[in-house]
Amino acid sequence: MQKLPEFPFPADHALRPSPLLADLRAGGAPVRVRLGYGAPAWLVTRYEDARTVLSSPVFGRDHERAGIPADRIAGMTPADPTSRTLLSEDPPDHTRLRRFVYRTFTPRRVEELRPGTERIAARLLDAMVGSGSPADLVEGFGLPLPIQVICDLLGVPVADRARFTAWADSLLSTADRPVAEIGADIDEMNGYLAELAAEREEHPTGDLIGSLVRERIEGDRLGEEEVNNLVRAMLIAGFETTASQVPNFVFLLLESGDYARIAADPGLVPTAVEELLRCVPLIAQGSLTRFVLEEVELGGVLLKPGDQVLVELAAANRDAAAFPEADTMDIAREGNPHIAFGHGLHRCLGAALARMELQVALSALVTRLPGLRLAVPAGEVPWHAERFVRRPKELPVAW
Fold first, then answer.
1. For tag attachment on the chain, is the N or C end more exposed, with fewer CB atoms within 10 Å?
2. Coiled-coil annotation: which residues (predicted)?
């Protein structure tokens, strides 16, 4: 029996996809790969095939509905960090749960959060500049910006925010950790969230946790565990994208020389953010695993119920069939239909929030620190090797 290729494939740059993905995309058909845990999966690399998998009800996210045991889910972690959350549900439960959260993340509501986010960014840069050059952009800016925004939204006390960061790091680690240990972290986090929810019952608030608790008490439409799991999903999705992509984006912009171009013309920030989202792969395994629910043909391959599928977003976002000069990063690119936030039913609920935060972060940096530069050679920047989501451990910068 032919040995399946190990995925993710090795790459010569932390933020550029492996050249092997371009070869597979040129071949067209999905290929079977093996990840660190679970059963093999089909890897999808073409843009149109990716959109099909991400939007068709034939490809579900509920492994139990597909008849797949938890320990057979193809992935980089021994336990799915999204289990029992909105990210792992299919309709009708997904539709019901998403409705409760969507109103918090509508484009209009997110725009109302922009001024507050700008104030947070300004305070963080004040502190970083005040401490002097050089500084670590990850600890000084990239991590605290989104954690303050999402915790303000949720209503998490300032003193407890460090615990959320630690839990997120734990759940997204790809290190060889016992499943029981991961489960203990999830239980600890859920216990903390249950305490916050109990406080909201005694003392109602207008934050997101308070709103979800009201739905549970007054409308009897949410269970206690559902409230906890919704908040956990929002922490992971609402915090990690921005926390990781801010240092990722700045690293790539400084390396390419495009940072100075944006500093000279901050009006490029919106298109630059979209192009960086297209070009910078975030999830190391490509996407969340999908499960085939009924027989279907995709790219000339017959997929059967119980098969597992991974969409390699980085490859799909560099498909020349969808993007002119797809391998060139053009920070002025217009009409950018990337699928960095997914597509269809499970498109990232926090996409508007992440986009706004990334725009605010980049605008604040190029305005306040137009001469920003790496404080060490690019090759000496340390990267997290065992993490579901890519980002540097630290990003030393100077100005």
1. N
2. none
Q: Which range of residues forms the domain containing residue 384?
A: 82-280+331-398
How many beta carbons lie within 10 A of that of residue 259, not counting itself? 26
Whether residue 56 is contained in a domain is answered as no
Q: Please report, for the domain that includes residue 123, its CATH number.
A: 1.10.630.10
The number of beta carbons lying within 10 Å of the beta carbon of residue 42 is 22
Q: Which pLDDT value is given to residue 1? A: 53
Q: Residues in the chain, how many?
A: 399
Mean pLDDT calculated for residue range 53-58: 94
Q: Residue 386 — pLDDT band, cuts 50, 70, 90?
A: low
385 is written with which tokens? Answer: 């090797």
Residue in 115, 130, 125, 175 with CA at minimum distance from that of residue 145 = 125
Contact 348, 245 (CB under 8 A): no
Over its C-alpha atoms, the chain yields an Rg (Å, rounded) of 21
Q: Which residues contact 376 (CB under 8 A, 6 or more apart)?
A: 396
317 or 351, higher pLDDT: 317
> Phi and psi (nearest 5°) for 342?
90, -165
Q: In sequence order, what are the residues at sequence separation of 6 or more whose Cβ sits closer than 8 angstroms to the Cβ of residue 68? A: 39, 291, 306, 308
